[in-house]
Structures
1.
Amino acid sequence: MTEATTAQAAGTPGATAPAPAPHRWQFMRAGGVDQVVFRNGEDIARIAELDQKLWVALACPTRGIDFDPRTLDLIDTDHDGRVRPPEVIAACQWACERLRSADVLLSGGGTLSLDDLDGAKAPGAELAKEGRRILDLLGKEGTNTLTLADISDRGEWLASMRFNGDGVVTPETPEDEALRATIAEAMRSHGSTPDRHKQTAGIDRARAEAFMADAAAMRDWYAKGSDAALLALGDRTLAAAEAMRKVAAKVDDFFARCRVAAYDVQAVTALNPSPEAYDALAGHTLDANAHPIAELPLAPITPHRSLPLRGTSLNPAWAEAIAAFARDAVAPLLGERDSLEDEQWQALRQQLGACEGWIASRPANALAALPRERIEALLATREALLALIAEDEAAETHNKLLVDLEKLLRLQRDLKLLLDNFVSFKAFYRREGAIFQAGTLYLDGRSCELTVQVQDTAKHAVLAGLAKTCLAYCDCTRQGQKMSIVAAFTAGDVDFLFVGRNGVFYDRQGRDWDATITKLIENPTSVAQAFFAPYKKFVRMIEEQVAKRAAASEAGSQTALQSLAGKVATADQAAGADPAKAPAKPPLPATSRVDVGTVAAIGVALGSISAVLVGIFGKFIDLGQWIPVALVGIVIAISGPSMLIAWLKLRQRSLGPILDASGWAINGRMKVNVRLGGMLSQTAHVPPGARRIAPDPYRERHGLTGAVAAACIVGAVAVLAWRMDWLDERLPPQLQHDPAAASAPGA
């Protein structure tokens, strides 16, 4: 015994754990492929150990199949619209980690007991706790059973909860009026975001923090203005500086023009508006506040002129702003007056200059127009607002656990179904309704169960044609809805399948659709059909040729009748015409004579042909008891190639290309043999035990015609046999033509 083995036997810490034994799988053979059978939860828990070469499918789409799309979306972790083996394996392992026993996944139903969750592990314990909370919220304190219906409508009761985990608070969330006003102000100035579970809008953490940052900036700006040096008029300084700032540029322009006019009186004309400028204004409907008028100087320019603060000589576009300036700045600092001198203006600029600079430094944000008291009130609710958002965000943990509960319940209901339609095709080969089967098509006296939904018919047909199956693409319509399907005809004949033929399609929900064939890919459905195919083609060719000859003969007859009718209609005109003026009749063609040599050649040819036919028939009669074998040989020569091709195609008929063209990745050939095809396309049969109560009164009557035809054939054979002396060789001497043989001794 080795040291490691001894330590393991003694239970010492140095003992190594034995490697787990390989899992024993069970398989069934169907469609020419070995397919795994899921017997218990252990098979699901250890699915990662199953060689992916033994998986029937390696990918499937999340749409266009009869499977709950929400479950597929939860399995499709990369959200690319396709499910692949790693995602299926991850879903199986995720579910098994949270359950005491994986056998729960085999029962289905979308029902889970809290006792089924593994409380010894953190993931299972958290889900059990969350499940208990949900049951309490639903008023089910006395039960431990959670169903998918309990959480499928979680959006409704999340919307009714105060905190739903999306981190968005609305004006209705808080009970405090001040906090509601803050949220409303933040939505007005910084926009809003929709609540994930409610039909209202609110603000999230990012907007709330940006709003409070702007409010803090305004508070700091107001704090700088508390310096006494900035407030020459106390609380009225801000209004005075604001009024002066609005007219400062125009007042500076006015006094600058007056100084230039004082420098040179000749500039007065140029510094005032020209007559042409007034002419341009006069051509339009005037508005005192129009931009062209506001561009004119505040008052007429003259040397050493003072600025009028009121009166008719003031530019009407600036009258209101100058009045506010005189009221808020000039009157408090210089007293009431009607005009302002240049020196007085410079004194005002000096007194309010510091305050004007402070105003220029005001933050340019959405809260700049709010007064200081309002800013302070908003900042007072900052902590309460952020705490409210944090409390709503804390509920997101419950939301994540709720999604995990939904996923576990959906896997408990749907995972086994997915495995039987992905890892194996048990549901299809046992005719339990595979998820790729769209429904049943009723057309041409049969029902087709192998139908697949199609997005692009032309693209699908390129690959699906390799399935060696007779496929009919149909457009289905119902109450304004439209979809396309492809149906596989795997039994019966295809003689009356053609584009434009109508049928009825029943989807998996039992709804009926109008179906019309738009494209047909022809392939044999059985060897028996291939046996009769050459004869049917021959009959169709004869019918086509006869129809063509009949049409040509009918056209010739119509032409002759039209010519005769024309002559009859103009016979009276011809009779009343002047014989002298009548055109000369063309000379009659010379009567043709039949060449004797030609007749002889035709006779020789017909004789040769009849001799060949008689010789062939004679050789056939000479076969005697081998005549049936010869007939079988002729039939095989005609139908054999068609039957051989059909047999080869039926051996190659498979499901893979049809599904591959629909977005699947099929790992095997998935054969559809004749027996399975007969089950997938069932033809019409009278039910067992039923009986016909009367013969068909409109059936074709072939009795007399058939007897006459048979008599003619027998007579023709007898004549040919007599002409070939076949009867003389086989009849008794007294019935033969040779008299010597009849009079011989013992005759």
2.
Amino acid sequence: MSPSAKDLTPLVRPRSIAVVGATPPGGNKLGSWALSNLLKHNVSADLYLVNPRYETLADRPCYPDLGSLPEPPELVLVLVPAAAAIDVLRQAEAIGSKAAIVFSGGFGEGDRAGSPLDLELQAFLADTSMAVCGPNTNGIINCVDRIPAGFPPYAMADELPVGTLGVVSQSGALVSSLVEHLRGNGLGLTVGFAVGNGIDLKVSDYVRFLAGDDRTEQIVAYVEGLDDADRFFDAADEATRAGKPVIVLKGGRSPEGADAVRGHIGALVGDYDAFAARCRQHGILTAHDLAELAALPMAQGQWGKRVGVLSSSGAVAGILADSARHNGFEVPPLGGATHSALAERMTLGEPRNPLDLTGQSVVDFDLMPAALEAMGNEPGLDVLVHGMLIGPDRSINSQVDALLAQTEQGTPIAVFSAPGWPAVDYPKLLEASIPVFGSADLLFRCLAAWQKRMPQPPSAEGPRTWPEESLEDLLADISAPTCAPAEYSDDQPAAVKLLGEGLDHKTDLGLVELNVAPEDIADAAARLEARGKELGLADTAVVVQSMADPGVELIVGTKVDPEAGPCVVAGLGGMFTELVDDVAIAPAPLGLADAHALLDATKAGALLDGYRGEPGRDRQAAAEVLIRLGHIAARDHTEAEINPLIVHTSGVTAVDVLIGSRRS
């Protein structure tokens, strides 16, 4: 049965639970930890213990198997070794259980993927109507209803971290660390899902459940590899349409990180930039690290780009201004009325943005409220960021009261705690939903993420039809004519190349000669053939092209990512491709605005517009190539690279093309 058709309610809010493999509380086994948590939090569900080795456990009857229970439990916790786990699942299915969590490892992780045990479990899960979490998970923790069906460390605490965030993680070990960060930010959970190997239920299924959960307001996810990326983005769209932002941290951004992730979950890991681009398209926020993943939820809001900075420390004000500019914000000068209002109150320092209120604010408790009011009324500012210092309680309380008063006037405010105190140390600010950060850079990264977020996912329009042209049709329109040396008939200088299967970096290998006079083409071809033999190359051919007119050289192309799907790439090309490494990527297909945005995401955009007196180039023609490539990639899943695509003052020329592994 398709996981999307399964009801996850019995996993999250079961009326009865069986713990198969239960062992005495206080021991050092999984069955002990799971049982201890259920008892500690006085779980409201009917609780049944199953282990043939015991007649009683924790003053409760212990049954030899699931078939001996007085009723079929809705949820079965499978805490037995992998070799016995499938038999327990079969028993659960036979008695009518609706859900199970398989904690056992040893199925599809690492080099066990495709093992007989893994394949047997996959076959069972493909047919069962039960909703099954795992295997290799540490469980599902329903914090609101106090149902800790698992044993992550945060579930072993005396109090569960209740809040409004739904958490989904492909790493069970990471969740408790994330929860500690969230707690420091004054945030808690509705439900925490540890996906495990995700053979039956995947990240997308849990996101979809949370999208429909009335108690969940935001969804936070840690993902590594998605083998159902389309379903994940569809689920995220459901959440966004329900007014629930989705925030994701993805492991495997570097080659080394991707290797670690593959070893962890045994799954394909796609290109991070492609994944992040598709997230932006769907209004999903992406975090760069664990601290940002935990901080982004508290920063939810509409933040403008023009920032007013103030603090009682010039150093702190300067640090905040630096971080603001580094993250794409403006720190504009104050208007005349604001400058005058501040000048009337300040006896030290200069009224400006960023504003240093100096030591005067330590003795004059009315200065901070007056400064906040003046800057809050400044029409040239969108948001205020206040740098909080260590000081006497009276001074801190005065600043907090002033911040609260200004927030009540509708001024968006964020606070930087210079001593690094967490948000929970400022309970009044927390209650007023004023975010507090212990890092200036983290503060502005979070504000920037929300400010740039697309609030709506792509519209659910009907299937699109794309032009029926092939990649070859497109290349025929824009490629420089190519012929054999003996067939070259132009009287202009030529480019002579040696082509072969998978031959990249031909210039570096000495396999290209440029500006060759027509009478010298035969000699150039002979030199290139000799060079090819020297390198041990086979199945090569010499071709000649007319030298293309000068222009801005781009690299453009398509790729099919295992997670992001068909994508279009563009950036600075030619000899600068690897030196500059300035390439952007976007999911296919593209509209005209998407294509121009892709060009503007790299330095190529500025060059096309005419840089330092250079003439502008035909950016529209370049954008149309990207659109056509995107349509072809979306329809045919074709991979190709054009490098360089020379953009002239009028028109474009594709000079070198790689289709799959074939050069042309």
